[in-house]
Amino acid sequence: MIMSFQVALEVSWAARGSATLDRLSRREEEPPYAGSRPLVCVWCEGRSAVAMRVNESTVLLGPRVRLVPYRRAHVLRYNQWMQDPELLELTCSTPLTLEQEIQNQRSWHADPLKLTFILCARDDDDGGAIPDDLTSGMCGDVNAFLSEIDDDDDDETSVSAELEIMIAEPAQRRRGLARTALQMFIAYLLERVPRVGRLVVKVTDANVPSLRLFESLGFTVHKPMPIFQQTELRLSVASARARGWGALSREVSCVVPPEGEGQA
Ligand SMILES: CC(C)(COP(=O)(O)OP(=O)(O)OC[C@H]1O[C@@H](n2cnc3c(N)ncnc32)[C@H](O)[C@@H]1OP(=O)(O)O)[C@@H](O)C(=O)NCCC(=O)NCCS
Q1: Which CATH number goes with the domain that contains 210?
Q2: How far away, in angstroms, is 110 Cα from ligand 1 center?
Q3: Whole domain around residue 30: which residue ranges?
Q4: Is the pLDDT score of 52 beyond 90?
Q5: Cα separation of 261 and 264, whole Å?
Q6: Is the pLDDT at 26 greater than 50, yes or no?
Q7: Pocket, ligand 1, Cβ cutoff 6 A
Q8: Average of pLDDT values for 134-144?
């Protein structure tokens, strides 16, 4: 079965200029689809905060890749992946119980400073249809953690986005999925999240695949972090925009609300 989808994206930057973080918290108590559209963005006290909900009903379709919102249905597989010692080390993660992972998914869903998609491998001859089962082809994730840039006086460029990506299924590696997903994700981030002025990734020095991946996208070394045995790489927003990655993917707005998690 195929879900019904509304191709035109109708995300509105609700309450911009007037909402407060307090309002964002209260929003958590409202039904997820109260009113015409979900609240996706607040602007508070000169600082921007974008709810994870900006993408709660967004699917991005690109070549061989489908990015879908992280939902409860993905948690079991995600938790299984994150028991693997190698993946834990490469992603600097700690193992969680399934219950903790469920709580994580709920809190990420509402977190104003996180943006996460589950990465699915797609068949390019799927005609652009989205499977009813959003876990179909699930093989990794891509996300960003947002933070204020405190060494920058310019309010127009004051949000840093720290990126992470994982192709958890070994059989899906070296197929170009991570590179394509990052291109799609960065383009979406720059389009939907206000005031992003910095794209950052911190990679463990021994993680050659990840270093090569980000270098292949134009990221350059910003600084070594020897204490953590990591390197910080950056890509300027201007450079990312100039690459035209937005043309790679198409946004599809899912009109079917997330089930059983909206109040989280
Ligand atoms: C790093 C990772 C995301 C790469 O995903 P992937 O889908 O296999 O990467 P792609 O196929 O898109 O490769 C893109 C580029 O990355 C580099 N790359 C990817 N895997 C590589 C490897 N094993 N060795 C060397 N370079 C590699 C290459 O430059 C490649 O371009 P090419 O195929 O044209 O040579 C994946 O290996 C992974 O999830 N590893 C575990 C988790 C992790 O390390 N996450 C990153 C944390 S910062």
Answers
A1: 3.40.630.30
A2: 30
A3: 5-254
A4: no
A5: 5
A6: no
A7: 87, 90-91, 164-167, 173-179, 201, 203, 207-210, 212-213, 216
A8: 96
